[in-house]
Structures are given as structure tokens and as C-alpha cells.
Amino acid sequence: MDQLPLPLEGITVVAVEQAVAAPFATRQLADLGARVIKVERIDGGDFARGYDTAAGGLASHFVWCNRGKESVALDLKDPRGLDTVRRLVAGADVFVQNLAQGAAARLGLDAATLCAAHPRLVAVDISGYGASGPYAGKRAYDMLVQCEAGLVSVTGTPERPVKAGIPAADVAAAMYAFSGVLAALLRRGATGRGGPVEVSMLDALAEWMGHPLHHAMHGGTAPARTGLAHAVIAPYDAYVTADGGRVLLSVQNDREWRRLAEQVVGRPELGTAPEYATNAARVARREATDAWVAGALGALDTDEALARLEGAGIACARLRDVHELAEHPQLAARERWREVDSPVGPLRALLPPITLPGGAEARMGAVPALGEHTGAVLRAVGMTDDEIAALRRDGVAA
User: Fold this and answer.
1) Distance CA 355, CA 361 (A)
2) How far apart are alpha carbons 293 and 235 in whole angstroms?
3) Which conformational region is residue 267 in: left (phi greater than 0), alpha (psi within -120 to 50 degrees), or beta?
């Protein structure tokens, strides 16, 4: 049987993007076969290029979000640079931008304007809070939106709220932008028309807050911050083992508790004692419940504790740090790692989570240098070498 092509082969995306939300969305499109032309500022490019130098001298955020793209460096404040972007958009299927609120509209690069001029275009506006309402013009960074969306209020310990350790608002917006593009392309296939797609970071993260939000709206109280514990299930926490590791376990029903009590804790009578036999009773006596489990697991090393829990049919996990994730045996066994090229040489990267069996493997192209593809892309839209040289000489292109 012939191998299926990547689903977005033949789709061209132009992105005026920065940071994480738009770049991560367009990277998903590139992985699935789309050609992604990334338009960057001439003075340093996407500011995420300067976040750090951890990835062999490159910024880790930029490496993560920008493989497989063509970098074109243009000054959009110059009419010639802006005209060049419009020429690129005229031949594109998708346009994505996450400029500061109002900036795209001032340049005529907002979704409504572009879709009016190009009916088949799918154009995406990604913002912090949306195009209207009292927060429309408010500056929006990931941590700020995490606070506004209430994520910080339910994350952390009883004593202290904390932000998520990943840019959750950016990633949420990116994934809705990605799926919004796919949906709009499907609609275009049926109707011949593209159209605007709007995604805000607050809307996206508020959706991800569904469980605590509904718990609070309909139950009257928000779930408590419980660290690694669960607000309404016990035992459900991380426990220290004899060799200093930590094992997290989750007991989902009373049958599992009886098995845990008998096969791991070594106290089968706890499985049926009224003080512990039901989840409600265990939550009411959480400290004592945790003490029994902690005592049993604290006498075992990590591997032995996990083996004992697995043998009893109890859901469990090893609490890993990021270095341990990079060496995770499951990722290795499933051959999830690849190498992508970059200006500093090959870098390890994970295959994207979407796997399409029977089709071509995700296209994990190189991480581009700033302006690496300016000349080639501008020639492709009909510019002569002299015209490109003039733009470079005048500081409009790099």
C-alpha cells in the first residue's frame, strides 16, 4: 500500500509571530507538512530568540516552537516591507499573527481585513483577551493570563499559589489556533471560503479551567490547593521512598483501597474498617490515611514500591525531573526522539504527539537562522536580485 502524504502538504502559511502562542501553533502546521514562512523583525527577529542560550547557544523556547519554518526578516514599518508581506499573503492559504493588540489592524494585517481581500484565506488573530471588552488593550503575558484565568489560584500548596511550570496560557491558545486552522481549512474545502479565526489566551485557558470552574460555579466552593494531593480523593499524593525517590499513587475506588491496604500497606483490616473503607471516610481522615501509606512506601526503595503498587493494580508513577523525562524509557522504547538541524548543529527533539499510522512521518525541519530564507522567498514572489539588494541596503530586509 502506498504511504499517505502528510495532510497539510501544499498548504502555505505566512506568520507574523513572536514568543510562543502563534509560533507553537504554526509549528504544528509545519510538522504536518505545511510550508510556514515566518516573518520576523530585522532587529533581532522574534524576541523569543533572545530568551536564553540553553539549546547549544540558541534559545530553548525558539528551538521548541520554530523548527521547519522559513525565516524572512522584514521591517513592517516601511511600506516596502509591508507590501512584501501582502504579496506573500496573496499566495498563502493561512495567515497567523499574534502582534500586540491593535498592531495588526493598523498594518492592515488583521484577519477581517485580509479575509475581505482574499476570500479563500484562513486568517488567525491570536490575542491575550480578545478584540473587545475592557481588557482588549491590556498587555497579556502567559503568567498574567494564568492569574486572570484562575489557574494560579488552584495550583500550589494550601499556603501558597504558584503558576504552572510551563506556559499554559500560550500553549492553550496555540493548540486552539492550530485546531481552528484545521477546522477552517475543512470548511474551505466544502465551501471554497476561508475566513477569520479568533483565539484569545484567556478564553483558551478558561476552557482548560473547566473542572475547577464548574466545581465552583455549581458546587459553591473552588477546589482547594493541595500540592500533589487531590482535593477530593484519598490516598492520592506523592510519597517518599527509602532511597529518596518519590512515588505518586492514586486510589480511585474502595476496591483499590482494599487491595492497597492488604498487598502494599500490609494491614488488610484497614480495607474494611469504617474509618477508612470509603473515600469520604479517608478524605475526612486524610492525615492518618497518608501516614499509613507513607509508612509502607517509606520502607521500600522506589523500584520496589512501584513494583508492589503495580502488582496490586494501583495506578502509580515515578516523580521525575526534566532530565529524567529526557531519558524516559517509554519515549525511548517508542522511538519518539529525532534530531533536527539548526544553526548550531543537530538538536534532539520529540516527534509531535499526533501520529498518523500509514502516513509519512512528521516533517521536523531545521530551526532557521534569522532571515535565512529572505532571498529565496522574495524571489519566489517575483522580486529581482536588484530589488532584494535594495531592500537590504535600505534596512527593510535582512
Assistant:
1) 8
2) 8
3) beta
What order do you get walking across the sheet with 94-97 strand by strand? 69-73, 35-40, 12-16, 94-97, 122-127, 195-200
**Measured between alpha carbons, how far is 279 from 234 in angstroms, rounded to an integer?**
6
Q: How confident is the model at residue 1 (pLDDT cuts 50, 70, 90)?
A: low
Angle at 171 between CA 93 and CA 133, to 5 degrees: 80
Q: Which residues are CB-neighbours of 4 under 8 A, at least 6 positions away?
A: 356, 358, 359, 360
- C-alpha 291/C-alpha 281 separation (Å) is 15
- By CB atoms closer than 10 A (0-12, 13-18, 19+), residue 327 is exposed
Tell whether omega for the bond before 235 is within 30 degrees of 0, i.e. cis: yes
Q: Are strands 94-97 and 69-73 parallel, antiparallel or unpaired?
A: unpaired
Q: 224: which 3 cell numbers?
A: 482547594
Rounded distance between C-alpha atoms, residue 287 and residue 310, angstroms: 24
Contacts of residue 106, Cβ cutoff 8 Å, sequence gap at least 6: none
Most distant pair of Cα atoms in the chain: their distance: 86
In order of 31, 238, 266, 279, 309, the CA distances from 304 in angstroms are 40, 15, 15, 26, 9
Active site residue ranges:
230
Asked whether the beta carbons of 236 and 229 are under 8 A apart, the reply is yes
Q: Which amino acid is residue 292, in one-letter code?
A: W
**Distance (Å, rounded) from C-alpha 221 to C-alpha 6?**
47
* H/E stretch holding 359: none
Answering whether pTM is above 0.90, one says yes
Query: What are the tens digits of pLDDT across the range 335-377?
Result: 999 999 999 999 999 999 999 999 999 999 999 999 999 999 9
| Dist. CA 149–CA 202, nearest whole Å | 6
